[in-house]
Design a protein that fits this description.
Layout lengths: L1 E4 L7 E2 L6 E5 L7 E2 L10 E7 L5 E7 L5 E3 L2 E2 L5 E4 L4 E4 L14 E5 L9 H4 E10 L2 E8 L5 E8 L4 H15 L9 E6 L3 E7 L6 H8 L4 H20 L2 E2 L8 E3 L7 E3 L6 E2 L18 H4 L7 H16 L12 H6 L15 H10 L17 H12 L46
Parallel strand pairs: 3-4
Antiparallel strand pairs: 1-2, 1-11, 3-5, 5-6, 6-9, 7-8, 7-10, 10-11, 12-13, 13-14, 14-16, 15-16, 17-20, 18-19
Helix pairs in contact: 4-6, 4-9, 6-8
């Protein structure tokens, strides 16, 4: 096999079949492969080819180091042994590249030199390190052998359970129908005996939750810009008869551009419905779930409007617009939430921004603003007008002032008791990372 370095400064490490043990470390006298970085121990690890010469063998890694040997971001542990599989990332001394101060990146991709060529996903992509957990599976970074473009690959263990297969089929079908700049695109799908692999557009800027926490909340213009992109994507989704049903900041990915481009992702709970169909299944993340889902009322695409309302409120205040009682039954907690927008008093948004949030957080779905109509709301209309006039204005110049008020009657919270002047510290500060 061969260890291919992720850094152009390093050479590949070849593992020979006639040499069953390869020692790696900093000491040139005791190792077959020498890595000179200070994070590498003198005797760092050994790689063993365990098996016969007929292709039926395993590669194992035994760690002896102080700073660790990592496989796909998981530390093996000193004195412990792990199997190294084809396509795994192995790192010596640290699991990620060090930027400050800069240091050599001792991460490699292991490729097995097999007698038969790779098939399926691995015939077209080199799979790198794990990016995280997605719905039902892990997500890894992968490089297209043909184009050299990076993608994110969601690998989902295949089960015999028919309900599981149905959910995965929904996700694939939903994503293949959607072509939009603010929606994470699906490149292709690979089916194997044990897994289903979705090759997705790679988004390199993290998610909205991390962005909110990094900036400790967003100014109104930035929040409005994000909201505009979210509602544009969701209008496209709803226009094609799809309900996301699990919309939350972690499922809203961002590019590394400035300002970031929004990418709606993770349709694991999406449900393709005819425009007249009403869905009656419970799913989604409770924090962002609309009340009608738990009351077992029939519901439609307007459940996504509720989720967007919570997200917009969180972007501007870093708080949730209700109180949570963890011991309470989740069904009662979601259905009986009391909306409280008092944290907005701390950020003093425009009247239009507050009205927009109120319009989305209506308990009665029939009074709730649809995301298809959201672009017509004065808050987003003025945002689009400002960008059309001069997209390069600084934050102060493009501030959306409080003089903008919506036309028509103000939306009311039907059946909702609003507690005024409540100390916002009592809110569950999910967007601050507090639990």
């Amino acid at each position: 096999g061969i260890l291919y370095p992720l850094s152009s400064e390093l050479e590949r490490i070849e593992l020979y079949g006639d040499q069953p043990v390869t020692c790696i470390g900093r000491n040139p006298e005791d190792n077959d492969a020498v890595l000179l970085g200070l994070q590498v121990s003198n005797k760092h690890c050994k790689i063993t080819l365990d098996g016969r010469g007929d292709g039926n063998f395993h590669v194992t890694v035994t760690d002896y180091s102080t700073n660790g040997t990592w496989i796909n971001g998981s530390n093996i542990g000193k004195g412990q042994t792990r199997i190294l599989k084809d396509g795994n990332e192995i790192a010596f001394g640290q699991s990620r590249a060090q930027r400050y101060p800069p240091a050599t990146d001792y991460r490699y991709i292991y490729r097995r030199c097999a007698s038969t060529p790779p098939t399926g996903l691995h015939a077209h992509y080199d799979v790198g390190h794990q990016l995280g957990q997605g719905s039902f599976g892990t997500v890894s970074k992968a490089l297209s052998r043909k184009t050299g473009i990076w993608y994110a690959v969601k690998v989902i263990p295949r089960q015999r359970n028919q309900k599981f297969v149905s959910v995965i089929a929904q996700e694939i079908a939903a994503m293949e129908k959607l072509q939009h700049k603010n929606i994470c695109q699906i490149e292709e799908v690979f089916f194997s005996e044990h897994s289903i692999s979705l090759v997705l557009e790679y988004i390199d800027g993290g998610d909205l939750m991390g962005f909110i926490r990094k900036h400790n909340g967003l100014d109104e213009f930035t929040a409005c810009n994000m909201t505009h992109q979210i509602t544009t994507a969701m209008a496209h989704i709803h226009g094609r008869g799809i309900i996301h049903r699990d919309l939350k900041p972690e499922n809203i990915l961002l590019t590394s551009d400035n300002p970031p481009i929004v990418k709606i992702a993770d349709f694991g709970l999406a449900k393709i419905v005819d425009i007249q169909t009403i869905v009656k299944t419970e799913c989604g993340t409770p924090t962002f779930m609309a009340p009608e889902v738990m009351t077992r009322q029939s519901y439609s695409h307007l459940v996504d409007s509720w989720s967007v309302g919570i997200i917009v409120y969180g972007m501007m205040t870093t708080y949730l617009p209700f109180f949570e009682d963890p011991p309470m039954d989740i069904r009662i907690q979601v259905a009986d939430r009391t909306i409280d927008l008092s944290a907005l008093d701390n950020v003093k948004p425009s009247s239009a921004a507050k009205h927009f949030i109120e319009s989305l957080l209506q308990y009665d779905p029939n009074r709730r603003l649809s995301l298809i109509n959201a672009e017509k709301h004065p808050w987003l209309v003025k945002h689009n007008t400002i960008l059309t006039i001069d997209p390069n204005l600084d934050t102060e110049a493009r501030s959306i002032g409080p003089e903008l008020v919506s036309t028509g009657e103000r939306c009311h919270f039907l059946g909702v008791h609003v507690r005024p002047n409540v100390d916002s510290r009592l809110h569950r500060a999910l967007f601050r990372g507090e639990q």
